[in-house]
């Protein structure tokens, strides 16, 4: 197993991008549930009437944003995989001896 890489600039950028993307997905999810409830079930959600519903509408985008940040930071921290062409052990890597290339 590889040693964990330090949390560098590339992972920080990926984490911020994942946070924003995840929060946007969470917001779309809550809006879709609200629209479904209003137009299909004909029962609009009353956020002002209940505190737990307001908490859910805040927690879902926040949770999705946190999951997106963790997922993106972990994915950015991975090294090259042996099945990718830029890995030194891949048969088509330019620095590999007796490389035949992609042709």
Give a verbal description of the structure.
- This protein has helices at residues 9-40, 51-76.
- It has 103 residues and is mainly α.
- It is elongated, with a radius of gyration of 22 Å.
- 13% of the residues are buried.
- The mean pLDDT is 79.
Tell me briefly what this model is.
The chain is mainly alpha-helical and 103 residues long. It is built from two helices and no strands.
The share of residues in extended strands comes to under 5%
Strand segment count: 0
Task: Give the averaged pLDDT, no decimals.
Answer: 79
Which consecutive residue ranges, at least 5 long each, have pLDDT under 50? none
Distance between the termini: 33 Å
Shape: elongated
Oligomer: single chain
Q: Helix count, per DSSP?
A: 2
Radius of gyration: 22 Å
Largest sheet: none
Question: Can you give keywords for this protein?
Answer:
single chain; mainly alpha; 103 residues
Task: Please give the structural blueprint.
Layout: H1 9-40, H2 51-76
Helix pairs in contact: 1-2
